[in-house]
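Proteins fold reproducibly. Consider a sample protein:
=====
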Amino acid sequence: MINKDPIMTMLTRALDAEALRQRVIADNIANLNTPGFKRSQVDFRAFMDAALSGAPGCLKQTDPRHLPGRTGGGARPHVEQVATSHRADGNNVDLDREMIELVENALGYQAVSQFWTSKFGIYSQVIKGGR
């Protein structure tokens, strides 16, 4: 039942994207002093836009006034390398920027995981029969 819920599928994909973004930011910070290293970033906004504008999903439309459901299609986050360079050694990692993105990512992951936990709690209540 949970696997067929498009909201849970979307939340799971969002958590996966946030985890990928965390790994990319950590890689950028780890290579802060590596000459010639180019920072990478996850195009999270494009991922979410693609996921939210996917083709109508498997939600059943029981009334003509209902909006069609969306499952997020096959949207996947995309890692891209940023080619600009503002240092003499060719490295373009800015520690301040990376730390800000790290905090933003942690907050985003926390928000999505709290929503996921809330949604999962609803299923738990249904399974327990409201007890």
